[in-house]
């Protein structure tokens, strides 16, 4: 059984937004088309399963610009699953955290419980929505949409239990870290933190 | 074709090959289609341009097809008084719209006024559909057509490079990002702008090379750099000259490369004329001093050509080009450059030494640059610096597939407004016809003659032409404006007849050479879905007009098209093109083109591309060509002494802007801004946008961070002016008084004497629902032309900043 994980190398990220757009096109296309028909305001409020924020540091001329990526961490110990009153939030055998929208009542406990802000209420499908690691693609032998399109290879995906996988190799070097370890969530998304290379 | 159309209606998911058209870089894509709808776009894993990757714009292509703002039917304006607004345009049938165009053209032709027609193309016409448009112009008989906006886009940069290696457009040369170890980037932002072809290669190799970014503002590329050098705007040339000085004075150059690949050993007499020995095989033969034989011989015959010294040949004193270069750049010390660029001499020296000691090293090839009066010389200096360390063709900077099959660009008609205007402005390369700035005088004053009828091929003149507000007024003065586009952009609002094009995912296209990639290959578009609306392919639109003009014009078009496509025997190809088109439409043209190149049509249409020479084969062929003296330059070698520039010197007298070797040449804005009240204006791109053409893409519009739509002003300076983030400010061109309003973004990411804005915004069309705020950059530029290439000098602008 694979244990899927992701590594995001923030040194390689150029902040181009390809991952964000690929995710919308792959996973939320119908909602997106609906938002397009509603106009600019709906687009401004359109929720994303993954997004990038830009951070500027330093004073001229010693400055840096960094990008941080929000995405579901597919925790091994997911608080969103334990708080769900209906069992709509669940974890697959491969450890992917998903939402069964037929069971979701929109109580948003999980939104509150997630330390990463990775979940949101999607009014178009009337359910909580979140990243699925593109499990429909992965089951078909493809990479998640965001990983497959990333021009610089900043996002990597694979089986953390397979020591030969790219993600395992990067995690094994110790250069990739999990966010908010203190929450005890055991995330399966790891970040290579940005360094100003000189 | 019938089979395919049937399949597209079926419920099965399938992938259809296409070429991304969200930007000109033309990445190869696969379009996932189901139930006749576009579901998703993926990079084509076989695509050598983008290596299976696509950017946010490429991913957003799905939403272009379904964008409700698209032009869906032909539109006709009954009253010219309503120009400038979308109001006044009414829906019409294709028959009515094409008839209206044809009857207007018939009138002009019968009155002998067809020269009054002019055609301008934006980047969608550039490189791909230009031959189809030029053949149209030739068929009706007007000399006034530009498919490629050379003066606004690439020509000064391309010409600078081509003076050294014969080619230089961004489609023709490419840094070997896979192997480069030291990369200096000037006037370029490959991680924040157009091209996945560069970004994907440079990005995947980040960490394998030292990246030095020279830019007045901290760009997306600077964010990834090992070293950011915030240089004074317009002075990159001085920086490069100082690097040349360091490489030469420290002896870090590659003398073997200079001897074998370049004309650095060529002897030049004291009066500045090269010692030549006639022309063989179309190439100028020149003399070098052979140290082995102690005499002057043709380069090919020399055993050890001298790079330095002074020799007497036929009673005349002569020196090798390298000696002249060495003497010339002795003055361009890092200390000298510090005074001009504001970059510390010690840092310039450090970069020069690192650059000279690291192999392969390269100065990035750039993409767009008509920015300054010295743009041509800046890129020439970049090429010469690359040549010094052996970083041209054999490594560092490579020639692409398109570059490998390039021919010298032909001159345009002497009758054309572009050429007449450019010549009068003293533009040395006016004959190439890129100076479309001249049409403004032709509209306003009938100088050199009146133009009355404009065809706009996806070009947003109302936003992207220099002095754009003047263009808006000028457009109202024309008798007839015909716009071909997919969106009701600002320029379309000035049209009387609007002919809507199908988007790239809805159409089959002709055959194109694969641009930008380090391979020689061909590619095409296969329609993924049927057109959603009553739109047509550009070629169908042109043919539709010509059919209405009459059989004679229709016939002539195929001959002109065969010529424009570069056929060896146009008379033989023309009927084939016509018959194939009549049978199968644009697909038929593609098949004839593919057959003429012996390409497997079935494979082309199923995979979308065919690679003829891979990168290894292409590179070794280019190396052989360079060594054999068969490059596109007059001498066939890398020209450290440029024959093209020397010819300009002979014709127009000496100016540093066309020094045959290299020289410091000032930009117009040099030392004109004080950094307190007045600022150098520089512009750039954002990764989610392609010029002004993507601002109405629903998702790209909101994915673009607002701070990238604002005017960046140095934080300290903003404080001293009392300007806070989000304040409305006015940027006023100190020379013309023209002003735009902008939202201020005080930041540490820009020099104190510089204001940065993105030039991708500023749309005012009421028919575009997804655009957001931004600066209409070209209100602030004016009609100018650099003296060599005729570039628009788009950064020769100093602004005053005022609080609104």
Automatic annotation (TrEMBL), chain A:
**UniProt KW keywords:** 4Fe-4S, Iron, Iron-sulfur, Metal-binding
Offer an example of a GO molecular function term for this protein. metal ion binding
Report domain 4Fe-4S ferredoxin-type positions: 4-33, 95-124
Q: Give the protein name, as stated in the record.
A: 4Fe-4S dicluster domain-containing protein
């Amino acid at each position: 059984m694979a244990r899927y994980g992701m590594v995001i190398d923030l040194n390689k990220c150029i902040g181009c937004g390809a991952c964000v757009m690929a995710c919308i096109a792959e996973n939320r296309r119908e909602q997106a088309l609906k938002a397009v028909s509603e106009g600019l305001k709906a687009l401004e409020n359109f929720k994303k399963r993954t997004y990038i924020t830009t951070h500027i540091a330093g004073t001229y001329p010693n400055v840096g610009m960094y990008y941080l990526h929000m995405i579901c961490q597919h925790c091994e110990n997911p608080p969103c699953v334990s708080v769900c009153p209906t069992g709509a939030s669940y974890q697959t055998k491969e450890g992917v955290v998903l939402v069964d929208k037929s069971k979701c009542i929109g109580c948003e406990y999980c939104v509150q419980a997630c330390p990463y802000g990775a979940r949101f209420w999607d009014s178009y499908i009337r359910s909580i929505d979140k990243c699925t690691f593109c499990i429909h693609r992965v089951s078909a032998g493809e990479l998640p949409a965001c990983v497959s399109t990333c021009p610089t290879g900043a996002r990597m995906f694979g089986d953390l239990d397979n020591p030969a996988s790219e993600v395992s190799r990067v995690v094994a070097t110790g250069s990739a870290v999990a966010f908010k370890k203190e929450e005890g969530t055991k995330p399966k998304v790891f970040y290579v933190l940005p360094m100003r290379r000189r | 074709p019938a089979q395919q159309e049937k399949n597209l209606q079926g419920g099965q998911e399938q992938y259809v090959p296409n070429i991304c058209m969200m930007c000109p870089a033309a990445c190869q894509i696969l379009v996932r289609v189901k139930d006749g709808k576009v579901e998703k776009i993926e990079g084509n894993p076989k695509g050598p341009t983008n290596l299976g990757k696509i950017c946010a714009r490429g991913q957003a292509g799905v939403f272009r097809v379904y964008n409700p703002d698209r032009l869906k039917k032909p539109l006709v304006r009954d009253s010219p008084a309503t120009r400038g607004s979308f109001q006044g345009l009414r829906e019409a049938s294709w028959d009515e719209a094409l008839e209206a165009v044809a009857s207007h053209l018939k009138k002009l032709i019968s009155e002998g006024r067809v020269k009054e027609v002019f055609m301008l193309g934006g980047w969608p016409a550039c490189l791909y559909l230009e031959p189809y448009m030029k053949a149209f112009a030739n068929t009706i008989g007007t000399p006034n057509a530009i498919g490629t906006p050379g003066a606004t886009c690439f020509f000064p940069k391309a010409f600078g490079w081509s003076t050294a290696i014969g080619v230089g457009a961004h489609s023709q040369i490419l840094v070997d990002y896979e192997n480069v170890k030291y990369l200096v980037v000037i006037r370029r932002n490959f991680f924040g702008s157009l091209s996945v072809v560069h970004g994907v290669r440079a990005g995947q190799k980040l960490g394998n090379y030292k990246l030095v970014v020279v830019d007045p503002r901290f760009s997306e590329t600077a964010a990834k750099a090992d070293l950011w050098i915030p240089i004074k705007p317009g002075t990159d040339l001085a920086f490069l000259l100082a690097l040349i000085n360091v490489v030469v004075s420290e002896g870090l150059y590659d003398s073997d490369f200079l001897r074998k690949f370049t004309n650095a050993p060529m002897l030049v007499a004291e009066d500045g004329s090269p010692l030549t020995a006639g022309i063989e095989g179309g190439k100028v033969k020149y003399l070098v001093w052979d140290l082995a034989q102690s005499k002057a011989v043709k380069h090919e015959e020399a055993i050890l050509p001298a790079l330095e010294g002074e020799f007497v040949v036929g009673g005349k004193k002569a020196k090798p080009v390298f000696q002249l270069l060495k003497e010339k750049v002795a003055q361009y010390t890092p200390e000298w450059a510090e005074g001009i660029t504001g970059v510390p001499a010690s840092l310039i020296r450090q970069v020069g030494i690192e650059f000279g000691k690291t192999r392969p090293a390269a100065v990035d090839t750039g993409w767009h640059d008509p920015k300054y009066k010295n743009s041509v010389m800046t890129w020439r200096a970049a090429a010469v610096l690359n040549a010094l360390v052996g970083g041209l063709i054999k490594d560092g900077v490579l020639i692409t597939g398109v570059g490998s099959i390039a021919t010298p660009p032909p001159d345009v008609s002497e009758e054309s407004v572009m050429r007449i205007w450019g010549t009068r402005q003293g533009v040395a390369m006016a004959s190439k016809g890129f100076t479309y700035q001249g049409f403004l005088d032709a509209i306003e004053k009938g100088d050199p003659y009146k133009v009355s009828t404009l065809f706009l091929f996806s070009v947003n003149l109302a936003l992207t032409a220099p002095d754009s507000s003047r263009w808006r007024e000028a457009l109202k003065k024309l008798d007839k404006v015909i716009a071909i586009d997919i969106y009701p952009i600002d320029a379309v609002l000035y049209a009387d007849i609007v002919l809507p094009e199908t988007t790239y995912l809805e159409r089959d296209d002709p055959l194109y050479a694969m641009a930008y990639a380090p391979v020689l290959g061909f590619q095409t578009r296969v329609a993924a879905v049927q057109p959603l609306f009553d739109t047509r392919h550009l070629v169908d639109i042109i043919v539709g007009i010509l059919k209405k003009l009459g059989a004679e014009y229709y016939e002539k078009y195929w001959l002109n098209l065969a010529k424009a496509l570069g056929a060896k025997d146009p008379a033989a190809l023309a009927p084939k093109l016509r018959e194939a088109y009549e049978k199968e439409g644009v697909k038929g043209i593609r098949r004839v083109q593919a057959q003429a190149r012996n390409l497997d049509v079935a494979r082309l249409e199923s995979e979308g591309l065919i690679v003829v020479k891979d990168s290894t084969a292409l590179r070794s062929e280019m190396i052989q060509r360079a060594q054999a003296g068969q490059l596109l330059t007059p001498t066939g070698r890398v020209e450290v002494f440029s024959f093209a520039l020397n010819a300009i010197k002979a014709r127009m007298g000496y100016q540093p802007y066309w020094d045959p070797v290299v020289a410091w040449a000032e930009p117009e804005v040099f030392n004109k801004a004080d950094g307190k009240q007045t600022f150098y204006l520089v512009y750039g791109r954002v990764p989610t946008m392609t010029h002004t053409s993507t601002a109405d893409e629903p998702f790209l519009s909101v994915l673009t961070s607002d701070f990238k739509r604002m005017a960046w002003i140095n934080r300290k300076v903003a404080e001293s002016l009392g300007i806070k983030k989000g304040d409305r400010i006015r940027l006023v061109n100190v020379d013309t008084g023209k002003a735009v309003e902008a939202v201020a973004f005080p930041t540490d990411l820009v020099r104190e004497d510089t204001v940065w804005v993105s030039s991708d915004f500023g749309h005012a069309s009421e028919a575009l629902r997804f655009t957001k705020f931004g600066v209409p950059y070209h209100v602030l530029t004016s009609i100018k032309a650099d003296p060599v290439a005729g570039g628009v000098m788009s950064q020769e602008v100093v602004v005053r900043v005022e609080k609104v």
